Structure formats: structure tokens, C-alpha cells
Amino acid sequence: MLLSSLDQSTEGHRHRGAMHGHSPHHRQSTRTLPLKVGTRGSPLALWQTRHFLELITKVCPLLREVKAFEECVIATSGDKIQDKRLADIGGKGLFAKEIHEALLDGRVDFAVHSMKDLETELPPGIVLACALKREDSRDAIVIGPDCAGVDRDDPYACLPRGALIGTASVRRQSQLLHARPDLQVEIIRGSVQSRLSKVRAEGGPQASLLAIAGLKRLEMAHEAAVVLDAETMVPAACQGIVGVTVRADDVELRELLSAIEDGEAAYVSAAERALLGSLDGSCRTPIGGHAQVMPDGQLLLTGLVARADGSFLLKRKLWGAKAHAAAMGRELGESLRRDSPADIFG
Q: What contacts 178, CB < 8 A, 6 or more positions away?
């Protein structure tokens, strides 16, 4: 079926696509419908996918009218194995491995991801086509019945001395233990809902940390006892950003997706992913990265490297022009690596 409105729908958005190397030449599509969208099956992943589809059909209403999209839920290795840290089973790329295999062999046309779960180096033949507007990037503490009340002046005061905190994130663990070395940490993974149920269960961890973006998207922000500012706990690179990947040679879809890319999200994600890439960080390395476009248009990038036990933590900032986002990420990453103990990256 012919998607005759692709040219019109992408007009005026070519400058956004330039960050991803999109061709300026528009073509009329002869693609067969429906277009298949690869996604994980968690409630949050499905919300993100449906949000993406809502945006793309607003830009090109014809696609909505002809029911142009089909969700394809793909079980990933990261979802199947819930009792181990990602670092112990192959890294965060396991949340995208099977989805990208389906993309490369043509079973799906594009894939929707939490961008913080994407590898910094995508598989050959796959590109990041667009970044959607960032939700709140901060982390939140969710607490069980044994925790104390909230103190606005001390975000960790709600956690009793020696409390058991559930998280599989070494980034969260390292910053938490640096501030509160009395705390204990155990691994919990799974969906937002399953983590909340573990905190509420008798004998489970007394608290956990989650991205407030996920809670907001699932209309569960009320579950957050404390939202930690990005200075108190530096977020994960690209936390709160949804990214869409496509085949590198699919110029048509890359052009269409450039129409919904958020310019600010493109800049901050470029900086944060470059920071992560220059540190060559794995899931074993506690790394935080957070970029903001300031009111004067400058980009402020914060980077963090730590030991998982919190015994070492180095945090630095860099200001610069947002057009140099990726270069800023590399520069700050190299600075952090240069002044950190070698064992952190072992």
C-alpha cells in the first residue's frame, strides 16, 4: 500500500534528522502495511510504544486511518532472567538483543526502547533514528511499612539505619552507599509493579529506587516517597528518554521518524551516550550521566564514576555549546577515566 503523505508529514523537520545523518531527499513510499513495531512486553514498555505510535500518527494522520501499525511483543534475555545482575548475564544490551535480531531479519520495521537500556554501540546495520521528549530524569525512593517519615532536608532520612535496599543498579547502589555506608543492598529486578510488591512484602527489602519517569508514565508517581534531585543521585545516561531504532538502510522510516524527534532530547542523549561510550562502561561500572539544556542555550553535562561499594566517587561537570554535545560527552568521560582508579573499569 502506498503511504502517499510521507513527504508532507516530514517537511520542516529535516534539521532534526541531521543529527542522525538522515538524507534530505524525500521519497514516496511503496511499503506494505502494517508496519511492525518491536517492543518488550512489560507494562512500561507497552506504554512507551503506544506513546510513540500516538506521536507518529499525529504527524501523519493517514497512518492512523489505515491502521498502519502492529505491535510485536518480543521476549528478551534481560526479561527472562530475573535473579541476577545484568552484568553477570551479558549487560544491558540483553534488553534489546532479540528485538534487534528481529529488526535485522525484517520481522519488525522499527523498535521502541528505554534509551538507557540501549548499548552505546548498536549492532551493525541498526541506527538510533529518534529520541522522544524526555520525562523527568530523576530517581525516586519507594519505601515499605518499616521506613520512617520523609525529611525534606535529608532525602535518605526515611531509610532506617542498616536497612536493606533492593536494587540491581550499581549506579544507584554506589551513590547510596557513598552517602549511607550503613545500608545493605540486595538484588531485585523485574517490572515496576513487581519491585513495588517486593518492597511491600514481609521479609522483603525495606525500600528500593526506581526511575520517577516510569512511575509517572504508569500513573504511579504517588508511590515515590522521595524524588532525589540529580545532584544527590546522578541519573543513568538517557534515563527518561524513549528511543526508536531502525535498519540503517531504511531511509524512508528514518525520515519519517525525524518528524517526531525532540531536539533537546537529541542533544542531551548525544552527550550522555558519548560520555558512557568514552568510559566504556559496562553494567559492572557505576556511571551516571545527566545533561541539561540551560536557559541560555548552553549544555550542562554532569558525569559520575564510582566504586560499587561507595568507597570512591568522582563527579564532574562540563559546560558547552549544545551543538558540541557528543564531543562534550567524550571530553568529560576521558577526564573521569583519567582520574579514577584503574580497578573501577576492570
A: 306, 310, 311, 313
